[in-house]
Amino acid sequence: MNRREFTGGLAAAALYASRAKAAWLPGNVAPFSMTELQQQFLNLRFGMYIHLNMATYEQREWGDPKASPALFNPKSLDTDQWAQAARSAGMAYGCLTTKHHDGFCLWPTATGSANVHDATDKRDIVRAYVDSFRAQGLKTCLYFSILDLRADIRPYCVTRQKIDKVKRQLTELLTNYGEITALVIDGWNAAWSRINYAEMPFPEIYKHVKQLQPNCLLSDYNHGRYPAPALYYTDVKQYEQHAGQTIPAGSEVPSQSATTLQSDWFWKLDYPAQELRSATQIVEEWLIPFNARHCNLILNVAPNRDGRFDQNAIDRLAEIGRLWRDRAPAPRLAPAWQVTTPNLASARPSYASTIADTSGPDLANDDEPGTYWQCDTEQTSGWVEIDLQKSTLFDTVTVVEPTYLSDYGTDSRIVSYRVEASSRGQWRELLAGDSPREMVYRVKPASAERVRLTLRGRGKPPGIAEFGLYAGAALPRGQH
Fold first, then answer.
1. Less packed terminus of the chain by CB within 10 Å, N or C?
2. What tens digit of pLDDT does each residue of 27-71 get?
3. CA 86 from centroid of its chain's CA atoms
């Protein structure tokens, strides 16, 4: 059954939309465990990114937020062609840019944002995409940018009204278009977007997504800020391979690496004659090795201004499909620890046994994994202590040594560590171990006014990038 037969005109489309909405109201779907969902996602192995938006018509990578929506005009839109091309490449899912950083929406949103109903071609691109991909047996994911320059959702400008607008847009996407396998979030808590998880509150948005679709994975583009061995504020770690982010050897967390078939994300005038990335590189250098590291490859294919793929892209995708014959399930995934709640130690007064030049203890609880406190020169043991200023309940501790930073080095300098908590002047041990490779640790729920991390090291002075405390942040292994 093709898409046109499936929709059967406006009346049938409206009926389908109402049924889809009813099917995805909270409580109507039995949730899988988080590990089951992550494994199902990894079993898809290979997906298609589709960047189509205002930038397609502007020779840009970010659309001009002042440009007229009338510029958007995919007059020969063919989402069936996209889906057939994805199938020819051996892909199992797609991901469409529903809203990029300039804020133009590819669906008829009722939130007041510029959208397809303001465009020259007024078709609901999200509806066409999900219908076409599902008709080919492919799973559907959606991309959504938190940064929104048209709506002035940017650093230091986030208000309650703007948070609610984001939630309303996500409600539309997650109730009107059926089952969404994953929601890929961009422009949030990144060095370049600078909208942090406090301004646009992560726990609130995350909970909202899970209430709408409990089986929808949320994947935030934050690898540039958080170390690889744990999942910080995401269900699936998202690498931007196109920006040089690489998957560590032996990675054990579920992840997805995004890159492009053409030179950039959005279509350019020279794309029909451009030499595309080779099928051999895509399959043998990326897809197969990445799958072995619990990482999917998602390859962006940019539609042209007519809303179709150029012939050279169609041909290369078919070539990829002929080369990639491995359809076995992905390697089994061990349950991964996740951090999804605020760091209770962040910005609290901190103290240390010693302080190296320019390396104060505040760098150990600043929620910035790219900075670190370090023992003073020739000191191989020491401690850092956080004053929580009031009795604070927590059940998760992060101890992150910056072995992922080049100026620190990849070898651990910590032989052992111990975490103690003080309540009403009485200290007790909560956690102890050797080199803190795992980074995220569950402890028995504890209330404390002060918490201390003691290190015993070797060789060079040891350091700590993040000594964090969380309540309910790490999911029990293998459970939702």
1. N
2. 566 779 999 999 999 999 999 999 999 999 999 999 999 999 999
3. 22
What gap in Å lies between CA 424 and CA 426, rounded to an integer? 6
Q: Which among 235, 258, 240 has a CA at the least distance from the CA of 192?
A: 240
Angle at 86 between CA 80 and CA 91, to 5 degrees: 145
Specify the pairing of strand 381-400 against strand 350-352. Answer: antiparallel
Query: Minimal CA–CA distance to 321: which of 92, 3, 49, 136?
Result: 92
* Of 215, 157, 148, 212, nearest in space to 181 by CA: 215
Residue with tokens 């080095």: 409
What CA–CA distances, in Å, run from 107 to 53, 122, 201, 352, 470?
Answer: 11, 9, 24, 53, 37
Burial of 439 (0-12, 13-18, 19+ CB in 10 A): buried
CA distance 170 to 166: 6
CA of 368: how far to CAs of 175, 196, 363, 465, 466, in Å?
35, 11, 8, 7, 7
How far CA 451 is from CA of 386, 387, 435, 473, in Å, comes to 5, 7, 19, 17
Chain centroid offset of residue 248 CA: 17
pTM over cut 0.85: yes
Average pLDDT, stretch 440-469?
95
Report pLDDT digits (tens) over 260-297: 999 999 999 999 999 999 999 999 999 999 999 999 99
Q: How far apart are CA 229 and CA 63, in angstroms?
A: 34
C-beta of residue 361 within 8 angstroms of C-beta of residue 373: yes
Pure H helices in 65-144: 79-88, 125-135
Report which of 295, 212, 312 is spatially closest to residue 252, judged by C-alpha positions: 295
